[in-house]
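Exercise 7. Predict the joint structure of the components listed below.
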Amino acid sequence: MTLATGFRRTGRAVLTVLALLCLLAIAVLVREVVKELKFLSSASSDNVHWTLSQAEVEFLEFRNAVNWARTAPETPLSSVIVEFDVFYSRTSTLANGSLYSSLREDPAFDAPLTEVRDRLNAMIPLIDGPRDELRANLDDLAAQADEMRVLVRKIATTGLQHFALESDELRTSVAVTLLRLAVLTGLLLLALAALLMHARRTAQQTEKRGKELAIAYARLNTILNTSLDAVVVTDTTGRIQNFNPAAERIFDCRLKDVRGKRVGDIIVPEHLRDAHEAGMARFAADGEHRVIGQGRVKLEAMRSNGETFPVELAIETAHAGDEQLMVAFLRDISHRLAAENELVQARDKALAGEQAKAEFLAMMTHEIRTPLNGILGNLSLMEDTKLSSDQSRYMRNMKISGELLMRHVDAVLDVARFESGADKAQEDVTHLGHLFQDIVDSQTSAAHAHGNALQWGWVGTPEEWVEVDSSRLQQILLNLVGNAIKFTREGRISIEAEVIEQGEPAKIEIRVSDTGSGIAEGDLARIFEDFQTVSHQVSDSVGGTGLGLGIVRRFVQAMDGVIGVESTLGEGSTFWLRIPVLPVERPVEDSGAGPESEAPSDLEILLVEDNDINMQLAYEVLVGMGHHVTEARNGQEAVDITAKRPFDLILMDIRMPVMDGLTATKMIREGDGPNWNAPIVAFSANVLPEAKDRFAAAGMSDFLGKPLQRTELAQIIVRFCAGRDRRVKLDGATPLLVEQKESPMEKLRNRYMSETSSLFEWLAGLPEDTHAIADRAHQIAGSAAAFGQPGVREALLLVEQAAEAGDREDLVVAISEAQAAWKAAPEPSLVG
Amino acid sequence: MYTLTERFTRVAALLLLLLGATSVAAGELEGPTGPVLLTISGDIENTNGDGTAAFDLDMLRALGATDVTTETIWTPGTITFTGVELKTLLDHVGATGSEIDATAINDYTVVIPVSDAVEEGPIVAYEMDGKLMSRRDKGPLWLIYPYSSNAEYRTEVIYSRSIWQLDRMAIR
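Solution:
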């Protein structure tokens, strides 16, 4: 109850009490008035004034009769007697009548009356006596009457005064009563008026509330009627009270047909009816509810034709007066579920597509790289054989194509690896100056080939030793510099590094600028996207996957850096990147003992591989490292062999016929052979992280990617086999010394070294035969890549180009660049 | 055409008239033998000489006595009055007027409508508490209404009509 209502109620009560009090008082007064009116109307009063004056009149009549009898002696005395009796009778009335009882209390009235009565009584014997005696005493009677006259007069006047006063009092009393009555009536009227006003206001409020209620009701009805959800109202026993139009539509039955029926029979499907009844019984028994008030619940409902369909249901209880109601909101979700199913299917399809993409990438890794590796490796080997000049040219073309294909595949794989998160940032301590110098060194020949000058330098104070992901930074700069070289002719390419923010980490900006063709403004926005290539008249010859800058962007972002480009068409471009680096102290020089030097030799290694070429390549690398290699062609063979003799290391391909590497690994681990705890290293082209997880789950110790990298292999051997290089001696067998003569790999390497040296010696003399120069440069260029000297290869390819073009000046420059590259190149080693 | 009842009524009235004629001379009342207490004059059918009807106490008693027990404003206590009903008296004299001029021995006169003369109504009393009333006690005749039994008789008008020492009535 609000305060205002409280006041209103109190006011109403006060008014009512007031009115009741007025009524009561009026009733009392009315009773009073009626009484007085009664008194006035029925009262007892005769005409007292007249009676009193009549007494005087009758006395005078009596006196006259006496006097008359005295003057006329012959008249009979009867009139004297009669007048006496009449007067006597009157005095009796005054003395005895109840009307005069109050008057008699006044001595001024009572005393003369008593005296008059006494005198009259004294006269009686004379009056009733003989007439003669009466006549003889007439004078005496007259004398007495004279005396009584004053008394009678006094009686009359006193009585009149008394009754006049009484009348006055009565009038006053009536007037007062009437006044009171008037006042009270006025008050009552006021109270009634107030009550009336109050009642009117209440009535107005009631009317207003009624209207509001009607509006609210209409609104509610509109909501109910226009609701798209079915609304079903039942009592607590489940009898339908209301069924909105949406419910009629959804359940296909009319309200008039279902009102009062049990909701369970109308909309609950038969298989849910028992549960429904049990729920209703629970609710009826102890108010327990599992669905009510629980929000939306998914259930099935039934249409009038018996069809069941899924609904979303929410039930609440409500009170309407004393009655408890259950209100159910139902939504037909068959369409939604259908749509959801479609979405799920679409998503599944999309996921399947993603899966297919992932599988495709895996296929790229394995099915393309593996054979490609084989092709390239064999091409390298084939170069060592005797070839005709045509064959050499075809070989050269094949190698160029193959290497290009390998680069493309690698680019795609880089993206895939990066996207899958396989490629984790690895920070190491790096000398930035050396890093830049290496890049300049390796790219100089390529830059010169297009007539470009390539240089680098610090702007401001250098920050040389830093902790940074150097391999990524290297890749980024190589890519940017490579692009700059591609799109610049006879120009200048510069790498500038500048510390733009001191601190830990500090921030450096690296700018790769060229004076090349520049990039159209419209293309600037998209060049960092994947698979974007910019058509360009200068570089028709320069193709690509369009992934280069996409990878660069990913790498920069992975290093918490930003990359951007500014360019003017026809004037050149500047690619800049800002990355955080952690400045460090110059590290103490390592003693220089590389893993290679610690690597144990003479190990028993089982190589499980189904691909002949890969098998041969790996075999030669391992034998070249001084190990004994046993070959197995598939998982089953591996299992059989490992059951018989122990191995220091097992290299296991994954995809193989008969039995795959994972199964074989499991069998070896679970078997009781001598190799149950030997290190088994996966040897696969599939380098995606989930693949590595699978390998580990199968019991594999580590992972070695294809193509086989000597350094990685060496690291694996050190990790698992350090200190096992005496196995052969422990076995008690005569040490089977590796043949003193060179291994095939050594032979290849030595031959490459000597051929390259002789080429450069020959070139130093600037031979005239440009064709020969082109041929020989090309031949060595093809070998250089296989021996891990891409810089030499690039430089020699430029020599070849210059030679074929017949441009002597270019050729001289190219030759000098190539010599520099050869001097700067790492020790040749056969890759993969 | 007369109904049976009407015819019977007329025959009965005729018979009564004839019977009255045999006991009392038609329109002729017996004469008083004692002192005359009341003389009725005016529009009356039955007289006993000189166009008036004079009554002595015996004649009044002969008309039948009625007791009225009541209080009055003029007397102390409750009193039983005995007398003849005014209606009986007027019927007896065959009064045809509508008003009565009632006069007391001292010539005090009030006008009483004949309509007051009803059964259970006023009586012409001659006894008070079983005693004849002397002239000194408002006798010998006093027109008494039954004041106590009917509130309508307790009004000033009725009190003024309650004439005592009554000795004449003129019907008009």
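Discussion. The CA atoms of residues 43 and 171 of chain B lie 5 Å apart.
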